[in-house]
Amino acid sequence: MQKISRLRRIHPGWYAGTFIAVLAIVAQVLYSTGIYDSWRNSRSVDQACGGILAQGELATALDSSELRAKPLGLDDGYLAHCLVLRADSGRNGSLEMSLRWSTTKPSSLEAFPSSSDLDNGTMGQVAPLGGGWSGIVRNDGSAAVQVALDCRNDRSKALVAYGSFAAPGFAPSKSAAALTGLGRVTTETARKTAAKYGCEASGGEKLTTVSSPPYGARPNPAKPLGQSTGSCAALRTLAPMAAQHDVPQAMEYPADAQAPQVNCYLATPSTKPGYGLYAFYGTSAKMFRAGATRWLTSPGEDRTYASATAKCPQSTEPAAFVITHLLEVHGNDITHPVPHYSPDFANTTLKAFADNEAKQRGCTDVRMTATP
């Protein structure tokens, strides 16, 4: 009887020790095989940007299904800000996403355009996102997509999503698939965020392809202005006048009445951009006015631009239209491809551009103004 009693006293401790040993072995197996890291990475992606990041196209955008995410510091008023990276070591690819209301000041990374962007050749260019989305694609060496969803139930604000291939990994490749993936992640994240925060907005369809504007040495394709069918089409009838002012060529983008920024460039016979025309709507108009301070303060005699405004139904922010005399910058050497700025030509051209843009958007009260 004494021996049996002793065994009964031993059994509980033995089982507890065995259980702890098994747990330790399981934990070691999970850690050494990478199962724990995979679970932790997957959980970090699920929680990215407050759990609202659209995950369906992340693998396409970053060319990998092994991903991890981390939160980034919030600028004042931002709703969310996060970074998704490839978890397979030694491979390029990281996607940054930020979400804010249009009433919130954009971070320095997102702020665009500046006065210098719009003056310097085609540095201020964007391409329309397409697919019925109010969005644009930027390319300053690394692609970025911005989507602004105007709230029908509050015309004073829009939900702004900004997705980019950012440091440290940037884009995994220069492929169209990666860029389209970035576009899909950004648009679907914007749609989900608008719904979460009660912004009644219209999005577009699932993107099938996304194209970025040229960058660096790759020039914009040009055509005779009289043959324009896209963003410069409104200026076809001005082709003879443009030729007299040494800009017979057009560099244009697909016509898109949803894009929050539109650009058209008039180029010299040698295809150097001489005049740039821009239209900004809603959030983009607000950002333009915030960044183009020089244009708001230039003395009249020093102005080499013309501007106009219009009232549009989608937003309380007036649309802004601008034509500017472009620079060509090579290091410290700064010249104008078109040596002399013509105010009469600029005003005539901008009026035709603005009137056509307003007609396409249902905007009214187009006015030539001293400041944009």
What does this structure look like?
This protein has 372 residues and is an alpha+beta fold. The protein is 32% helix and 25% strand. The protein has a 7-stranded antiparallel sheet, with helices on both faces.
Can you lay out the helices and strands and say which pair or pack?
Elements: H1 2-32, H2 35-46, H3 48-51, H4 58-62, E1 67-71, E2 80-86, E3 94-101, H5 115-119, E4 127-128, E5 135-139, E6 143-151, E7 154-165, H6 176-196, E8 223-224, H7 239-244, E9 249-251, E10 261-267, E11 273-280, H8 282-291, H9 293-297, E12 305-311, E13 319-325, E14 328-330, E15 333-335, H10 343-361, E16 364-369
Antiparallel strand pairs: 1-2, 2-3, 3-7, 4-5, 5-6, 6-7, 8-9, 9-10, 10-11, 11-13, 12-13, 12-16, 14-15
How is the largest sheet built, in terms of strand order?
Answer: 1-2-3-7-6-5-4
Mean pLDDT: 86
Strand content: 25-35%
N-end to C-end Cα span? 100 Å
Q: What is the C-alpha radius of gyration, as a whole number of Å? A: 27 Å
Structural class: alpha+beta
Helix amount: 25-40%
Largest sheet: 7 strands, antiparallel
Secondary-structure element series: HHHHEEEHEEEEHEHEEEHHEEEEHE
Described by its quaternary structure, the protein is single chain
Low-confidence stretches: 29-34
Query: Helical segment tally?
Result: 10
Global shape: globular
The count of strands amounts to: 16
Short description:
The protein has helices at residues 2-32, 35-46, 48-51, 58-62, 115-119, 176-196, 239-244, 282-291, 293-297, 343-361; strands spanning 67-71, 80-86, 94-101, 127-128, 135-139, 143-151, 154-165, 223-224, 249-251, 261-267, 273-280, 305-311, 319-325, 328-330, 333-335, 364-369.
